Amino acid sequence: MGKRKFCVMFHVNCEYFGSMIVRAKDEHSAYCKAVKILLKNNIALHTNVDMDIEEM
Q1: pTM recorded for the entire structure
Q2: Ordered per-residue pLDDT tens for the chain, 56 residues
Q3: Residue 6: which H helix or E strand, with range?
Q4: CA separation for the pair 15, 19 (Å, rounded)
Q5: Residue 4: C-alpha distances to residues 20, 26, 35, 41 (Å)
Q6: How far is Cα 47 from Cα 12, in angstroms, rounded to an integer?
């Protein structure tokens, strides 16, 4: 099965922060990819960051 598209939305302190679209084989991979992108862009992962992942 090919890669699927997921929209990952971020909330920091319960406020909408941003979203990105990642291509991954499943939800867990999409989550990992999003975390890597956040770290690469020096967006510190606070304990109060929530991610909603939705398949497109």
Answers
A1: 0.72
A2: 689 999 999 888 888 888 999 999 999 999 999 888 888 876 666 667 788 999 99
A3: strand 4-12
A4: 12
A5: 14, 7, 17, 23
A6: 9
The answer to whether 19 and 10 have CB atoms below 8 angstroms apart is yes
Q: Where are the domains of the chain?
A: 4-55
What CA–CA distance (Å, rounded) separates 37 from 2?
21
For residues 21 and 13, give the distance between their C-alpha atoms in angstroms, rounded to a whole number: 21
Q: Nearest to residue 48, comparing CAs of 21, 15, 19?
A: 15
